[in-house]
């Protein structure tokens, strides 16, 4: 624990911005760290881990302090309760005088399961209804801090080249036997490394890396990534195709595609084009044009709560209902881009069946020319140490 006044005040201010002004945690943390260039690596890492943990456990900490979570609490008290419950220590400052570990534990002993696991009631209930007895395990799995994974850009280097290069800058990685990903085990300035400036890697969760694999893109094919965002998966697809063929990356947001263009340049990808989706004609014109179609649709993000714990508090049940309708529409309309004989992958970073297999089952019932050939369920707490992902590979019959 860093018990320096300036450090703690900085953390409290970051927490206030995240929890009370609805700014994304990763953006606030990035800004704070850029304002503290003299903090060493350990201090930076502790700041990131603790800030995410406090956000993750916000509801539990509030209930521990108050006995319920109807009344607001001071962020100082939340910070103190977190330290006391996780390290049994708290600085001897006036702000923490009234904190008492026995009282915190007594309050928690009477709390509900959603409170103890620190989820909003509506989400606990919805996920319980959809996932039954799997949910409490997944809920715990999603409360584990996220690890950092890298994808080696095989257009420029091998996994072992990347590992060696990073080790020279004191960044240690381990190759995970079950995947192509590298897990970062000893941190350093990843984005200032030579390997990064040369485009040797992308930071990408190991689960996310399985989605492009599921698409099975081959060199020389025509592939569309229709919800490409900033292109994490488009770049992986290009690497799997050895930079041969054609990748069209589309999104409704041009600014994301602009970021993708910069990333593609750094990664040495030169067979990728971007196109903004302005209206339904953009998709209609591409009917039957692609061997591979990736639909990495907008979703609740409930699979990536390890990485984005603030989403627990930002997400609303009505957002999920709107997303489910949008996903069904995207799947129905964009699937027309797949050639007969081609492969389509529908993917989400959600753990909810209503966004995953139920969407695919409804689509298959209405589109008998498609057949399900493979399904991927990555469920933290059940079968995965990565983020939660779902993918369904469908083949369009010839
Ligand atoms: C899950 S994110 C994609 C992440 C990206 N594939 C990656 O690997 O980095 C979903 C994307 O869908 C985009 N999107 C939202 N509505 C869309 C629509 N109607 N058509 C296409 N893309 C859409 C969002 O802008 C967002 O970038």
From TrEMBL:
For this protein, the record's CDD domains field holds: AdoMet_MTases (cd02440)
Which SUPFAM superfamilies does the record cross-reference, listed alphabetically?
S-adenosyl-L-methionine-dependent methyltransferases
Active site: residue positions: 349 (nucleophile)
E.C. code: 2.1.1.176
The encoding gene: rsmB_1
An individual GO BP term: RNA methylation
Q: Does the keyword Transferase apply?
A: yes
Q: Which PROSITE patterns match?
A: NOL1_NOP2_SUN, SAM_MT_RSMB_NOP
State the InterPro entries in the record.
Answer: MeTrfase_RsmB-F_NOP2_cat, MeTrfase_RsmB-F_NOP2_dom, RCMT, RsmB-like_ferredoxin, RsmB/NOL1/NOP2-like_CS, SAM-dependent_MTases_sf
Entry similarity comment: Belongs to the class I-like SAM-binding methyltransferase superfamily. RsmB/NOP family.
PANTHER family the UniProt entry points to: NOP2 YEAST -RELATED NOL1/NOP2/FMU SUN DOMAIN-CONTAINING (PTHR22807), RIBOSOMAL RNA SMALL SUBUNIT METHYLTRANSFERASE B-RELATED (PTHR22807:SF53)
> What keywords sit in the KW lines?
Methyltransferase, RNA-binding, S-adenosyl-L-methionine, Transferase
Going by the record, the broad EC class of this enzyme is transferase
This protein is called what? Ribosomal RNA small subunit methyltransferase B
Tell me the GO molecular function terms: RNA binding; RNA methyltransferase activity
Domain SAM-dependent MTase RsmB/NOP-type, by residue range, is 138-398
Q: Which residues hold S-adenosyl-L-methionine? A: 251, 296
């Amino acid at each position: 624990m860093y018990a320096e006044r300036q450090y703690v005040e900085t953390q409290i201010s970051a927490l206030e911005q995240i929890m009370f002004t609805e700014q994304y945690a990763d953006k606030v943390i990035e800004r704070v760290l850029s304002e503290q260039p003299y903090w060493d690596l350990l201090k930076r890492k502790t700041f990131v881990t603790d800030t995410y943990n406090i956000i993750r456990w916000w509801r539990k900490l509030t209930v521990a302090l108050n006995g319920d979570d109807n009344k607001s609490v001071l962020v100082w008290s939340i910070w103190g309760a977190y330290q006391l419950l996780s390290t049994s220590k708290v600085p001897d400052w006036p702000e923490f005088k009234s904190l008492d570990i026995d009282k915190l534990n007594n309050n928690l002993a009477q709390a509900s399961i959603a409170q103890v696991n620190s989820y909003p009631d509506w989400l606990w209930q919805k996920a319980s209804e959809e996932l039954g007895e799997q949910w409490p395990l997944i809920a715990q799995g999603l409360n584990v801090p996220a690890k950092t994974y890298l994808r080696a850009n095989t257009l420029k280097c091998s996994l072992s080249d990347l590992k060696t290069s990073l080790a020279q800058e004191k960044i240690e990685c381990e190759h995970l036997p079950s995947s192509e990903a590298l897990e970062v085990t000893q941190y350093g300035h990843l984005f200032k490394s030579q390997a990064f400036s040369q485009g040797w890697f992308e930071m990408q969760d190991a689960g996310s890396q399985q989605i492009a694999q599921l698409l099975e893109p081959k060199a020389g094919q025509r592939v569309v990534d229709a919800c490409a965002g900033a292109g994490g998966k488009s770049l992986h697809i290009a690497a799997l195709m050895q930079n041969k063929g054609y990748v069209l990356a589309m999104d409704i947001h041009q600014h994301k595609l602009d970021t993708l263009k910069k990333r593609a340049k750094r990664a040495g990808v030169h067979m990728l084009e971007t196109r903004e989706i302005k209206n339904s004609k953009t998709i209609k014109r591409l009917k039957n044009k692609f061997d591979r179609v990736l639909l990495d649709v907008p979703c609740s993000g409930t699979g990536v709560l390890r990485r984005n714990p603030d989403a627990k508090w930002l997400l609303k049940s009505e957002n999920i209902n709107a997303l489910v309708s949008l996903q069904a529409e995207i799947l129905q309309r964009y699937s027309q881009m797949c050639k007969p004989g081609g492969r389509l992958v529908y993917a989400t970073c959600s753990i909810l069946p209503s966004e995953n297999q139920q969407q695919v089952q409804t689509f298959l019932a209405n589109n008998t020319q498609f057949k399900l050939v493979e399904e991927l369920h990555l469920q933290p707490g059940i079968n995965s140490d990565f983020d939660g992902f779902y993918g369904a590979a469908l083949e369009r019959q010839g």
